[in-house]
């Protein structure tokens, strides 16, 4: 959809065509033509130009409707209604609709009602309108199915050079340091990461034990140090089901309002081309 500042009479015709095409799609309304090339020959032999020409078939007969679009700063008067009536009387057009930006004079309304010509006001939304500038036009539910694979360490045992096993509690696993024979220190956590990567290759929920050699290394636990030859890790790969639903509301800005004067129906046209009957539930129209 174009912005309000870009609208002109050509866009107004195109917009009118789009609205009626959309509103009547359930009734199999056909747009036969629109614009300055939309012409129909009358019984008088005169060619008549109409802004939008639609047709519908009831199985036996074809009914045509001429729609005139008036993007004027003034109200449409009865002369415009009379002109459309003359086209209807001189052709096989059965119905007429006049769409106006700024409404109709009282004479135009009376004459149109007497001759069964529908009159419609289609205009931009303004601050005085009793409608919300934004409407909720639908809801989308996203279903997320997430399985989180997480390796868990259940036990860490260091074996000293004297074959004594030392349990390394969880609260020391991020502080402990391992020093090799050359005096190079690494964090115990780096070794834990290696084992966790190994667990990712194993079957879920199966307890695995694996030993890593650290000959003549020193492990520092708090204020103690121990000479070790190996560290054994025990753990398993767990799967956490984290399925959930996230709901989003779709909100669109109202751009134009269409009032069908005789039928007393009001339609809201949004920036994204959604057409909503103001008297119905918004989300049901999407």
Fold and architecture overview:
- The chain is α+β, with helices and mostly antiparallel strands.
- The two termini are 17 Å apart.
- The chain has four helices and 17 strands.
- The chain has two domains: 4-124, Trna Endonuclease, Chain: A, domain 1 (3-Layer(aba) Sandwich); 147-241, no CATH class.
Task: Provide the descriptors you would attach to this structure in a database record.
2 domains; six-stranded antiparallel beta sheet; 286 residues; disordered C terminus; alpha+beta; 47% strand; Trna Endonuclease, Chain: A, domain 1; disordered N terminus; nine-stranded mixed beta sheet; rod-shaped; single chain
SSE layout:
Elements: H1 9-23, E1 30-34, E2 39-41, E3 47-49, E4 52-57, E5 62-70, H2 78-89, E6 93-100, H3 106-114, E7 118-124, E8 134-144, E9 147-160, E10 165-167, E11 177-179, E12 185-187, H4 188-199, E13 208-221, E14 224-241, E15 244-260, E16 265-270, E17 275-277
TL;DR?
It is built from 4 helices and 17 strands. It has 286 residues and is an alpha+beta fold. Helix 2 (78-89) packs parallel to helix 3 (106-114).
Tell me the span between the first and last alpha carbons: 17 Å
- CATH C-level category of the largest domain: Alpha Beta
Largest sheet composition: 9 strands, mixed
Number of strands: 17
Total discrete domains: 2
Structural class: alpha+beta
Uncertain regions: pLDDT < 50 for 5+ in a row?
Answer: 1-5, 281-286
- How much of the sequence lies in strands comes to over 45%
CATH architecture of the largest domain: 3-Layer(aba) Sandwich
- CATH fold field value of the largest domain: Trna Endonuclease, Chain: A, domain 1
Taken in chain order, the helices and strands follow as HEEEEEHEHEEEEEEHEEEEE
